[in-house]
Amino acid sequence: MKMVIPTIPVRELVPSLYCVDAEDGQKLFLLISKSFRDEKNAITLSFEGIELITSAFLNTAIGQLYRDFSEETIKTSLKVEGMSQEDLGLLKRVVDTAKIYYKDPDRMERTLREVLGE
Questions:
Q1: Phi-psi region of 46 (alpha: psi -120 to 50; beta: other; left: phi over 0)
Q2: Coil, helix or strand at residue 83
Q3: What would the pLDDT profile of 16-41 be if each residue is shown by its tens digit?
Q4: pLDDT at residue 40, as a whole number
Q5: Residue 63: which residues within 8 A CB-CB, separation 6 or more?
Q6: What is the pLDDT of residue 90?
Q7: pTM
Q8: Following DSSP, what letter does each residue of 23-63 receive, concatenated?
Q9: Contacts of 11 by beta carbon, 8 Å cutoff, 6+ apart
């Protein structure tokens, strides 16, 4: 028997066609986290009907998952659909950065301060 993977329609969660607000990203992050932690479910995020996605939204919604869950858990439990190639590229950059950051956040913070001359 094939397991049905629940789909979260992002368009129903975000009050506009634009996924730009980190606050909206936080709502999505909490839903994903609850699904992973409490229900042990794999989920699919559907971005059908969304016209614009920013890195601020993706950093909050998906990037911070790498703080709380293993890369393997995220890779096997989270799927996305309905994203343009451009948005998939942005998602890849967000994920790559999150993996580096959450591997050693103190080091990343020090590096950023050095680059910014603080």
A1: beta
A2: coil
A3: 999 999 999 999 999 999 988 876 78
A4: 76
A5: 94, 95, 97, 98, 101
A6: 97
A7: 0.85
A8: HHHHHHHHHHHHHHHTS---EEEE-TT--EE-HHHHIIIII
A9: 17, 46, 47, 48, 49, 50
